[in-house]
Amino acid sequence: MQKTVTREQKSQAPLPEIKKIEVRHLALDDYMSMRDSMQESYNSWHDSVWSKEDIEQLLSIFPEGQFVVVINGKVVGTALSIVVDYDKFGDNHTYQQITGDYKFSTHDKKGDVLYGIEIFIHPKYRGLRLAHRLYEARKELCEQLNLKSIVFGGRIPNYAGFSDKITPKEYIHKVKMKEIYDPVLSFQLSNEFHVKKLLDNYMPGDKESKECATLMEWNNVLYSQELKKFNQHKTIARVGLVQWGMRSFKTFDMLCEQIEFFIDTVAGYHSDFVMFPELFNAPLMADFNHQTEAEAIRSLADYTEPLRDKFIDYAIAYNINIITGSMPFIRKGELYNVGYLCRRDGSIERYSKIHVTPNEVNAWGIVGGHTLKVYDTDAGKIGILICYDSEFPELARLLALDGMEILFVPFLTDTQNAYTRVRCCAQARAIENECYVCIAGGIGNLPKVHNMDIQYAQSAVFTPADFSFPTNGIKAEATPNTEMVLVSDLDLDALKKLRLHGSVRNLADRRDDIYELKWLKPNGRKEVLQKHADKNYVFNILNPNILKD
Q1: Which residues are catalytic?
Q2: Which ranges of 287-376 does DSSP label H, i.e. alpha helix?
Q3: Rounded-to-integer distance, Cα 529 and Cα 520, Å
Q4: Is the entire prediction scored with pTM above 0.85?
Q5: Do 386 and 339 touch, CB atoms closer than 8 A?
């Protein structure tokens, strides 16, 4: 019965000396100690102590759902629960109904909600946040069993003192706003539960609550409705970033040998992804030095589709998803900077660089692409932005709003100044979009390739900046200007928890009453914007006057 006063305040009497404290599952041998604590907790509710037969029944049908806090060998707190098919009861139910007339016949192993039927703390041990420990144990169980949520009816024991002035609904609102303190409701709200609705006559005889109760809920953000499958999305994604050394390759096959070497190496660590840098195949332009720079890059484009086919074969053979960096590509006479996502199941996607640098326009005549999307993979939802695109926050934000978990940024920078722009912007994208950002660049020198003389890079994996992540927001980074691979594990579940319970919530706290970011029509172009990269998004100020305050 979720009716105990769980106020976590210091007892006026000194606390007993604590030698050992633990949270564990309830055993039948604990009953007498549990009963004594429950009687002390419910001294005004003489008929509210569970019998030994009741506890024995609970342990026989759902032992993993019953928890106790034990201090110095004594049970000082208990949390009991069952699993129910919530649709059979809905939000308008009583405590008697949900517990099957207190006999727990409503427990359903195939149910979808963990329902709390009891929690109490011995009065002498309040003030130690013991109820918080029990709630955390319940949350962990809910996640382990892949249940939608935790639900229970909670008392509002201070309402009796306000019932002649305000309604129960008004009382709940004032407790939420911290205008009124309620020893049960205030504590539950502080433990990430929210009020689902107000229940009337939930527990007859509760005079302190005027027989009202709050239907409380905690949502499991890790819940997956689909049955677990062999090829389900992973919760940990392992990524491998190739810090590619630019050097001369006499033949196309020699380049492919080096590509395969890195893929083989990263796949050997059971990685889910491997990423190559932007224009990693530039060394092949050495054969075209007799041409102008614009002609040479177009000649290099002849290798793009053969390389694409090689990557498809490698993805299947090495069982790994490959982000191919980028390569020049000619379509309808226009030159683009594109790459491919080659999934290990043999499917492929092509992505394009949307924003092109002045040098790419002036030296090579590259034009910007106009498609942007989130890609589904067997190891999470990913986005891919090529180098300069990472410096435009609108693109990554659109991807994040569409569910992106990992952003891959293949890049090519010649100087540390250029690299700093990519790095700093990539870190900002990770924080503001609550996602992982992986960057991989090329290093080394190409003295025999015009317009591709020097390269500087330090590949890295960036994270949000919150308690579950590194304090500096850097998961891993390579040695600068050294050919190597960087392998890192990314916890996708940590992102889900961050987006709901983070210290700050950059996505959830956006002021969309002031501004909005939205997609334009796919492949849409506006003549007035042709001097810039093709646009497929728009940023609007909804209420300019607000910004003048």
Answers
A1: 278, 353, 387
A2: 293-300, 304-317, 358-359
A3: 13
A4: no
A5: yes
